[in-house]
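Lab notebook: predicted structure, single chain.

Context: the supervisor wants predicted structures on file for every construct in the current expression panel, including those that have not yet been purified. This is the next one on the list. No modifications to the sequence; it matches the entry in the shared construct table.
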Amino acid sequence: MKKYLFLFILLTACNSEKDKTTYDFTTAFEKSNGMATATYEEAIRYYTNLAEVYPQISIDSIGETDSGKPLHMVTLNPDAEFDFKTIRKNKRILLINNGIHPGESDGIDATMMLFRDIAKGAIEAPTNTVLVTIPVYNVGGSLNRNSTTRTNQNGPLEYGFRGNARNYDLNRDFIKSDTKNARSFAQIFHIVQPDVFIDNHVSNGADYQYTLTHLFTQHNKLGGPLGNYLHTEMMPNLEQKLSVKSWDITPYVNVFNSVPEAGFSQFMDSPRYSTGYTTLWNTLGMMVETHMLKPYKQRVEGTYELMKSMIEIIDADAEKIKTMRTEAFANHQKATTYPLDWTIDTTKTSTLQFKGFEGKKVPSSLTGAERLAYDRTQPFTKDVVYQNYFKPTIEVSVPKAYIIPQGWWNVIELLQFNNVEMTQFKNDTIVTVESYKIDTYDTRNQAYEGHYPHYNTKLKTEQIQVKFSKGDYYISTNQSAMRYLLETLEPQAPDSFFNWNFFDTILQQKEGFSPYVWEDMAMQLLATNPQLQIDFNLMKSFDADFANNWYAQLDWLHKQSPNYEKAHLQYPVYRVK
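Prediction complete. Output recorded below exactly as produced.
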């Protein structure tokens, strides 16, 4: 009996090995001769099979997406080690995100082939770099396949839709995290803690000769030696490596309905975008933007070669990248001020040897107006001014800590998703804090990604004593999430939680007055406060609108009285200096 059992186990093992070797790792892209992209199901099945055959590949599902399906993370480590605490001691980590806009599917197919070719030894495996990919980030959009919504794009035959299962553009959701996708991405990001991040896209805009363009995170915003390395070493090195392979590349052509040779600026990636978000943890980030009008096969092959080149750079500069990132975290802890918003520095520019096509405005036979037309029979190489230097427009002092009352659980929850370290008061506590009152702000009058965001936010600041309750949160800025805290909790920041409407309840006054009652009380208030009477008279003398508006006068007086509620326009996040 034991003999038969042994034979059964042996035959089962042989059959299992045979099954593994019969997997077909030719991608849907390759089978179609560069015309098709993998479906979501095909991509996940492909990586699952790779992980079964090759021990250096692991696939995990991490968190949920709005589609109801999980978000997957695939890791390729030649050492077959998948504990990231152990990995990051000796190796750098590259995180590749694909399918954030599923119609821009180039990276989905290119990364499948890249992982396969490294695993099977078709290309040399990196020695100092571990690869991690999110095969398809926008799962709901990927399942919503069509062949028409990418109006300007040359292939593939079918593709996913830009909006996710709830019609969010996920590349505007990294800070506000309205979607389960964004929250699961944060979980993956903080598990992996990548040194370098690539997000694969397809560009819109102008026509030109390049298949590949790059959109590195803005180097001044990244800051310090790390930003300088990105700008003066990593980016030129990537361009040179691709040039040797006969793959020309240029910075992302940031124009709309105008010709690139007129000059253009670098795109500023605020933290709502993937590379703006990853920058908050000093990750070297870039988007690949292939050109929509080039054949799909060419775009995917270019994306593949770009990622290969980037892996070579990371592998060669592994120790340098590790050292600079460590120094970047330390330098931010020493900083006394922090820049929140940026504008183009017009005193500095770069010059691109740009390869374009002649374009001009011609009469439209459709609308009768002038339209832009490119002539591909007239290629050119011209010097083009590129504005890729930025300077801060808003800077704030870095507080020792922030305090958030526990009632703002929605904000606290997002901080927790992003591994922010915080403690809770064990007793009711009075603390001297710096307090913000919202002075003025503007608000979009059209919906944008599920919000009506604010902008041009201005503040009034004062030092006050506040009694905090047991359970309120004290959040030190002396932690790796320091940049994230400043960019989300300082109301003036473009992608602050305030500007994304998380605190809109403070903008509405909850208690008011009945004019026939308050007028008598207001007269008594003025009678007992001579300075207020003087200020009131001056307001009426120098502001005609105020003088002619009886309700505005009563409201102004109410706001100067003890009856006016303290919560109105009081920003509920406090700074400890």
